[in-house]
Amino acid sequence: MRFRPTFPIMLAADDGGAAPASALASRIALELTDEFIIPIYQGLVEASAAQAEAWTVFVANRAGGDIEALRSAYHGACDAWARAQIIRTGPIVLFLRYERFAFWPDARNGTQRALGALIASSDPNDLLPENLASNRVAGQGLTALERLLYDGDDSAAALSGPTDESERRANVGLALACNLNNIANEVLTDWTVAGGVRDAIAAGNGWNNLFADSEEVTRLFLTDLVGAFRLMHDVKLLPVLGENIDVARPRMAEAWRSDRAQRDLALNLEGSRAMNGVFARHLGEMRRDALNESFDLSAVAIAALAPNLGEAAADPAQRGSVEAARDAIKATQLLIVDILPTDLGITLGFNALDGD
Questions:
Q1: Cα dist. 209→56, 90, 213 in Å?
Q2: Closest CA to 38 of 76, 102, 83
Q3: Which residue among 11, 210, 237, 343 has its CA within the 20 to 30 Å range from the CA of 130?
């Protein structure tokens, strides 16, 4: 069922002059919640539900099943996640939900080990929602589903064949897809239920020890926006590029098996731009235009990338486009840091991607 609650902004528009910093921060927190955060998670619920339904249909008729329908549903879920991936504030951080939805980067190949253990087991109880949810984080999310759908030329046959292992693989895929939908629903419910995160922000209160008040949650949202660019630049591009072409690492690219690296970056930027737009509406026109121009340049640079940017990073003819995207993304991040905290009076907080 499509869940589209509407939440009216409770604070009146400015009637001239700058609002006090705390009042402005509270207003931005509610605007971001209603216009960006909740719609993002609604989209994640819908896309993950569609993916679970595709696996349900496939498992019911594996011999005649449509592997391309599974792949299409996977990409839909990945698209929704790429928009939500930049959000690290709120209930997504509880119970390792963020990591369980997509365990990446996976430096030690934990996904393959966890997925292999699920496939090798003959115990159907391993796939029960309550047991899967407490299983190894690396084997629960989109990264595991990508292995089932794209790992090798025989991935389709491995799911639709007549063997017990093929049947188990299909049942694992169904369990993983349902698990992702459960996670998405849990997060959306925490945001929208009476007494949930949205209500706490509207009342200026804290929620579940994740933030003390709406002013603090605005700082966290701004930190998420800056962190989105660290994710794109530091995590998704720098390791793939390496220091030079001789040490480029194509398989460090996100979702390289399914050729999603460029697509995920574009959607990360799309989400970041929407988030920035809520902050930037409270800026002067010149500052807002400067940010928009920088986002435009980043979008053009990302659009110029090959779908598998990992391969492009190792190709002398294409590497320049990856370096250009890296530079554009960094420039936009620095401009956000220069403008938003100062102009809006919002302190930029610690981010999990800051490093030591």
A1: 38, 10, 10
A2: 83
A3: 210
pLDDT tens readout for residues 235-281: 999 999 999 999 999 999 999 999 999 999 999 999 999 999 999 99
For residue 208, the Cα-to-chain-centroid distance in whole angstroms is: 22
Give the separation between CA 113 and CA 195, rounded to whole angstroms. 40
Task: Work out the number of other CB atoms within 10 angstroms of the CB of residue 199.
Answer: 16
> Which of these, 235, 250, 243, 253, lies nearest to 330 by C-alpha position?
235
Classified as helix, coil or strand, 63 is coil
DSSP state of 252: G
- The rounded distance, in Å, linking the Cα atoms of 267 and 88 is 16
DSSP 8-state assignment for residue 353:
T
User: Are 115 and 148 within 8 A, CB to CB?
Assistant: yes
Both tokens assigned to 222: 């701004």
How many Cβ atoms are within 10 Å of 185's Cβ, its own excluded?
16
- Extract the runs of DSSP E, i.e. beta strands, from the chain: none
- pTM for this structure? 0.91
Length of the chain measured in residues: 356
The neighbouring-strand residues paired with 211 are 207
Q: Could you give the CA distance from residue 92 to residue 34 in angstroms, rounded to a whole number?
A: 16
| DSSP code string of 128-173 | SHHHHHTS-GGGSSHHHHHHHHHSSTTHHHHHHSSSHHHHHHHHHH
